[in-house]
Amino acid sequence: MYKLLLVTNRPEVVSAFDSIQDWEGLGFRMVRKASSPEDAIAHLKAHHSDAIALALPPEEEHRLITFLNERYPLRPIMRATANPEEICAYARETEQLLTRTRADYSNDRYDEAEMMAIIRHNYFRRMLSGAERDPQRIRRGLLLVRSKMDPDQPCVAVRLSVPDDDGYIASHWKHGAEGLEVAMRNIFGAELNGMRILTSILPDEHIYTVACPLLGTEPRDPDEMLEEVTSHVSGNLSHIYEYLNIDMRIDAVCVLPSILELPTLQDGETATA
């Protein structure tokens, strides 16, 4: 059983959580509670919690998440509501995530941090493919998988192409799309001047590299971001050719209002620069 800490100052949310009788059926012990960021921090320092359910005013929520990013970056955060059905659904998602990240991978190279990174990449791939579209669901998903990308700042999306016809990666790259993704992440890096860099290859072999400011960073000028990211990607394409023998090209570059707009890339309606 996992331990869940509810952090909220909303009585209706507390009542909704108290109304749920079978927490063990959801994979959790009886929920412990804190009413403020300070109470939550004190609790976390004194007691173990596997996940946090959160419903606070924006300023208090930001303060607590900043602390969690520094001290507990792998601790899942589920959105707390006053709707018992939503609470149960979100708790099941959280329990499934914990089970995946805490599984015994003694025969593999994975640890909890690596599994969470894999889960995050899979979630972003769903966004890029258009499978995850609802902005509120995306915000909730980003919080749960502990993404550090800021969903309220503009981001830059770069679409890359490979030679020849469809199926090039499957037929020419012996390690497959997953292996190519890992190699490209190593070449492009994980961060660029306060921006998270994410590379994903979709099932249709469309390749995207996305750069988004990290939480807590100052707002960036979109034009400067566009120039910086384009230069970074262009400069590393020569390394892809040198080390991977793939003559990759930039198809299009665009600035989106936020990563919440990533699903629109598959609609063919996003303006490119």
CATH topology of the largest domain: Alpha-Beta Plaits
Number of strands: 9
* H and E string: EHEHEHEHHHEHHEEEHE
So what's the CATH class of the largest domain? Alpha Beta
Q: Counting H and I runs of at least 4 residues, what is the number of helices?
A: 9
Helix percentage: 40-55%
Main-sheet strand order equals: 6-7-8-5-9
Number of individual domains? 2
Q: Assess the beta-strand content as a share of residues.
A: 15-25%
The mean pLDDT is: 90
Q: Which structural class fits the helix and strand makeup? A: alpha/beta
Low-confidence sequence ranges: 269-273
- Rg of Cα set: 20 Å
Distance between the termini: 50 Å
Named at the architecture level, the CATH assignment of the largest domain is 2-Layer Sandwich
Biggest pleated-sheet summary: 5 strands, antiparallel
Structural shape:
elongated
Q: Could you walk me through the main structural features you see in this protein, from its secondary elements to its overall organization?
A:
Helices cover about 45% and strands about 15% of the residues. It is of the alpha/beta class and about 270 residues long. It has two domains: about 100 residues, Response regulator (Rossmann fold, 3-Layer(aba) Sandwich); about 140 residues, Alpha-Beta Plaits (2-Layer Sandwich), CATH 3.30.70. Strands 6-7-8-5-9 form a five-stranded antiparallel sheet, with helices on both faces. Strands 2-1-3-4 form a four-stranded parallel sheet, with helices on both faces. Helix 3 links the parallel strand 3 and strand 4. It is elongated, with a radius of gyration of 20 Å.
